[in-house]
Amino acid sequence: ATPEAAPTPIAPEPVKPAPKPEIPAATRAAEAALDKATADAVRKAGQELAVAEKAANDLPGVLADVRRRKEQGSVKPQIEVRKASGAQNLADSNQDSKVDMISVRSNSSQVREDGEMAYARLLGGQYEGAALLYAEVLKRDPKNLSALMGRAAAMHKLRQFGEARMLYQQALAISPGNREALSNLLAILGAEDPSQAIIQLEQLHRDNPGFSPIPAQMASIYAQAGDLASAIRFMGLAVQLAPDNLLYRFNLAVMQDRAGMVPEASYSYEAVLALAIRGSGVSLPMPIGEVRERLNYLRMR
Description:
Blueprint: H1 25-71, E1 81-85, E2 87-90, H2 101-123, H3 127-140, H4 145-157, H5 161-174, H6 179-190, H7 194-207, H8 213-224, H9 228-241, H10 246-258, H11 262-278, H12 288-300
Antiparallel strand pairs: 1-2
Helix pairs in contact: 1-2, 2-3, 2-4, 3-4, 4-5, 5-6, 6-7, 6-8, 7-8, 8-9, 9-10, 10-11, 11-12
């Protein structure tokens, strides 16, 4: 009996967790400013304590020293930082220079803290909680790439595909060519209406011509629709972009086999066996012995 070709095993890429949130430059600057203010306060407290101890022993001498420094102009109004935001904005010495460091710290630190908590929940499978925390981060920082990717992944896991797709697209607008966003977006598109998916995949392919999973996904959709010619064309493109990808090679061989392209399928099966023997780290969807049997059958035709 003629061995049957295995079905095309293209499956959407798994949803990858968002990268651990990075600390934005503005946040680092805010924290640095806060640390400096804290250190200054500690140093000032130490100086005041020293003055108090000296005053307890020699108050007339301390007062005389203050009058002398004031006459020499060495005693100046305190200049403090109004905001901890990258560049230091100094208060006018004649105006109220109250420092709102507590609220600044809250705003700058809350994004990082919420992002870290959201990431932990995402990895722990608490997708609803992660999505809520990422939403809070995005309220403060709408272009935070880590938060966009994190909420997209959470919504993807919750099967809220419409919002997940929108968030992945926003991430790609900020970081064109982002491989995680592209891979996860492909997984969503692969499960949608084929005609609409192809339109969006073609646009993604134009924007990212060197990303092999896009033509591979297009080939899978065409194969499922019975358009083997288009499927072979796009899977062949995926193989050109990633010639050592064992799964691409196998799928191309199966498609060519189904289309009756015996010489082409034989060549592709040979490439599959060569990659499998070399070791690619990827398992074939069928035993390697069956691949050899199919190749031998085609050679005898």
